Every structure is written in C-alpha cells, then in structure tokens.
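Quick bug: UBX domain-containing protein 1-like output formatted oddly.
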Amino acid sequence: MINSNKNKPNEALSKTGNKGCEQAMEWLLAHADELESGSSSQSSATPVTQNTEGASQTEDKSEASTADGAEAKSIKCEDCGKLFQTQVEIEFHAAKSGHSNFSESTEEKKPLTEEEKAEKLKKVEDMLKQKRREREEKEKLEALEREKNRIKAGKEMIEAKKRSFNELLQIRLTNGQALTQTFGIKEPLSAVRVFVELNRTDGDAPFTFMTTFPKKIFKPEDNDLPLDSLGLVPSAVLIVTKTIPV
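Here's what came back:
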C-alpha cells in the first residue's frame, strides 16, 4: 500500500530549519526507516469503527488496484519513469523536477540497501558542498567587485578634491614654447611669475601676463591676488608678453 503521510515533508523541513528541499531530503533519507516504522505503528494503532470499516477497505482496494485489477505496488512518474513508494518521495520529486504526471504501477520499488542509502546520502552531501562552494565563490567575487568599486570611488573623490583645490596653467612663452604647471587656487599670481622666471627659454626680458579669452592684461597689483580671484580656475592659458618700457 502506498504511504500517503503528508506530514513528513513539513517535519523534514522543520528538522532542518527550513533551509531547503536538499537538506530536507538528506534528513529524510537518513531517517527513512525510522519514519516508515513510526508511520506503520501509528496506522495500526488507529481503530476503525464498524460503520467506516467497509468504506475504508473499499477505498484501500480502489487505491491499491490498477485499471486491470492488479495490485499497485508503487507510484510511477510518467515523465521520467522513476518509481516511488511514499507520498514524501513523490512530493519531493515533483518539487525538484517539475514533473506532474504520476500513476499507480504494479512494478515494485526495491528498498534501498545500506550501501545505496550511503551512496545517495554522499551524492546529496556532494551536491550541497558544490552549491556551498559556488555560493562562497560568488560571494568572494561580489566582495572583490565591491572593493574595486570602493577604491575607484575613493580615487575619484581624491581627484575631485585635487581639482577643487588646484588648477592647471599653460603658459605660452614669447618664443612659442609652452610651460605647464599645477598651482593651488589660493596661490598668488606672483608664484606663477617665479615659476616662469626659473623655467623660461625665451630669455630674461621683463614680461607681463595676459589672457585672450577673455582678453585681459594683468597689472603689477594683480601679482599678490590669488589665482581663483583672477578668474584663472579651474584651468587657463597665460600668455607671456614683453613689457614695453614707458
């Protein structure tokens, strides 16, 4: 007779902390004999009244018989051909495979030997270990990606701060050559003059600065003003022009 105890899946899930079908199946396989013996004892201990005995026997005979009158010894999955002995096995197979076509069969499912049980348990354990390794590997990759993003964001923030406190000046000399240097936005224009005097290649004639966009000629009193107040941020092109003697 087919065991239709539907409490076993719930019990297995409860015993394994509701961690999934795989662990519940592992628990069921490990306690298969215990569950079956407990179910049989409970069934035999339940009294059947005289009024319902006939109906119960009729129902059992109906369920235990196939269309040609032979006794059903198992339930067969018509989708894959596997045989099952208990409702627990059927429900787990249906949940795991998505198969839904089952019928009674006269084929008898042989009980698992201790070696077969051990082999099946090992397969379940190997599958769980593989899934755990895959999950850990995925978590490592995700953590690595988060760290890369954190480092990238930190660098971008540092660069943004640098840009907010520094500016890049391109200085065109009178001979057509150019000097490039980064200055703090609060440095005075005189710091740029010193840099040009130390690095120029167009002689040592007196000079002044000017810009073309917008056009502006800087006066001696501008030398003490910070670059940001002179409109030379975040970048600018300064043109060196010879000072015309008055």
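Actually, after a second look the formatting is fine. Strands lie at 74-77, 83-84, 102-105, 166-172, 178-184, 207-212, 215-217, 235-242. Closing.
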